[in-house]
Every structure is written in C-alpha cells, then in structure tokens.
C-alpha cells in the first residue's frame, strides 16, 4: 500500500541517519524488555536542607540494569514512543512501595521526588493513578513530590497546568526542574502551580563565580518573593558549598553530599524512633 511504501523509503536517509534510526529501534526494544523483565531500578539521591545539613528528601532516578543504560540514553526515546507512560507508572508504584516498605520497618519517612515528563502529565489517568497508589499503600501525599520541566507548557500547556493544580491539590509538592536551561522565562513562575524550583547544574556552574554570586542569589531572591523554595543542583565541591552556604537557597543536591544510591544505601540516611 501507499502507506507501507512511505514507511520503507530508506533512500531519503543517509547512512548515519539509518544508524540512528536502528539505534532508536534497538533502544525502544530494550525499554520494552526492561519493562517486561524488571530491568529497571531506582536510585535515590539525598537532597540536603541547607540550614541543618541533614537529608530532607530524596530524588528518585531511574536506572536500567540490563544492559546498563542511563536515563539520558533512553528517556527521550521513551517519550517519543509513548513508553514513558508505562515507565512512569512503574516509577511511581516502585517509589510509593518503597515508602511503604520503610514505613513497615519503622523508619521515619522522608519525601521522594519523582521526575515526570510532559506526556505523563497529559496522560488522563495520572491523577487517579497517583491517588490510588497512595491510598492502597497508606502513604501521605506530602511524601511524594513531582519534578516537571517548563516543557510541560510546549504542548497542551493549559490542560497540563490544570492537571498540575489537581496534583498539588492532592497535597503533592511540585518542583520546576532544570531551571536556567532552555527559556526559563521568569514569567512562567508567576502562573505555574509549583512549590519549588531546582536550579540546574549548568546554570549554577556558569554563574556561581559571576558578580560575586549575586546573580544566582538574585534568582533565589525572586523565587522567594513568589513563595517558592529553591534547590541548587549539582554541588560537587567544598568551595561551591562554602559560597552557597552564605546564600539564601533552601536545599542543595549533588555528589558532594551523596551520589544517587541503591535503596539499601539510601536506607542509611533514615532514622528510626
Ligand atoms: P534531573 O532530574 O535534572 O536529575 C539530576 C541529574 O543530575 C541526575 O542524572 C543526577 O544523577 C545528576 N547529578 C546529581 N548530582 C550531581 C552532581 O553533583 N554532578 C553531576 N555531574 N551530576 C549530578 P541522571 O540520573 O543521569 O538523570 C538524568 C535526567 O534523566 C534527570 O535529570 C531527569 O530529567 C531524567 N530522569 C531520571 N529519572 C527519570 C524518571 O524516572 N522519569 C523521567 N521522566 N525522567 C527521569
Ligand atoms: Mg529531577
Ligand atoms: Mg534537575
Ligand atoms: Mg537536569
């Protein structure tokens, strides 16, 4: 049929495009296998309360074990193929079950942040799914945070904002991730239903030594005028820490404090009564 011949017009690709095309199909198949065979797992990275130096929450970061792939190698393909919906449900379920597990074993729980892509926000069942998973496992919504990027505004922005507000109404905290990359219009902050911004590592790297760090601190100040908390990501060394300590940001995250950890190691960051 005409439809099939269209699909098979490989002559329009050059060799590198064909390679890329095959690579995408290979990764798509790996994602399907990983979903079927439980080759995904979560690492938990501590996020530090700057005022106390203590871990206040974790960020859940997905990993593929078989073969070992990092999110940057498969998340964008998962988004394009729609497989991100299944991945996202798996992550939400896994994280809420982990909280339940810690709870049953007597640990004092700390919130866990889950990254969600725009397609997941647009998925009509997300809010119900979150709500039911929390209920089934008897976990308070305040123990879940979600991290989104400004990309949720690119397509279906109005609808996505309504969904985010519904998530917030459940008692779930929302963070705007990767702040400072892309456009990051300050204007977005005035109408997006978010509680926190996470300043991206690249932005922090670029500005921490610029104008005596006053520029970065200016962003922190603006966020605070909107009642938003501020996390600074990718803190890797003591010099940066000593600069940031003098500033007004609320939370810090980075290899200096801890790398993302297997669940057994993350447990060591929790206390029991
Ligand atoms: P992100 O949400 O901005 O996560 C922060 C990334 O920075 C993570 O990379 C983390 O391991 C890394 N990181 C943390 N501290 C440091 C540091 O001090 N130095 C450096 N160089 N890097 C640091 P990771 O785990 O490779 O994840 C990359 C991105 O993949 C995430 O960026 C997020 O956008 C996406 N992602 C990860 N897990 C998920 C998921 O479950 N679902 C979705 N939709 N996206 C995910
Ligand atoms: Mg994140
Ligand atoms: Mg981030
Ligand atoms: Mg990032």
Q: Give the ligands present.
A: ligand C2E, magnesium ion
Strand content: 15-25%
Number of helices: 12
Rg: 20 Å
Trace the largest sheet across and list its strands: 1-2-4-5-6-7-8-9
Q: Return the average pLDDT rounded to an integer.
A: 92
Shape: globular
End-to-end Cα distance: 68 Å
- What is the number of beta strands? 9
Query: Which structural class do you get from the secondary structure elements?
Result: alpha/beta
Low-confidence stretches: 1-6
Helix content: 40-55%
Give your account of this protein's structure.
It is a single chain. The protein has 273 residues and is of the alpha/beta class. The protein contains twelve helices and nine strands. It has helices spanning 2-7, 15-37, 71-81, 84-104, 118-122, 126-136, 157-169, 186-191, 201-207, 214-225, 238-245, 263-267; strands spanning 40-49, 55-65, 68-69, 112-115, 144-148, 173-179, 196-199, 229-232, 251-252. It has an eight-stranded mixed beta barrel, surrounded by five helices. Helix 2 crosses helix 3 (71-81). The longest helix has 23 residues, at 15-37. The structure holds ligand C2E and magnesium ion (3 copies). Residues 45, 61-62, 70-72, 75, 84, 91, 115-117, 147, 177-178, 201, 234-236, 253-255, 260 line the site of ligand C2E. Residues 24-273 form the EAL domain. This is Diguanylate cyclase (GGDEF)-like protein. It is found in: Membrane.
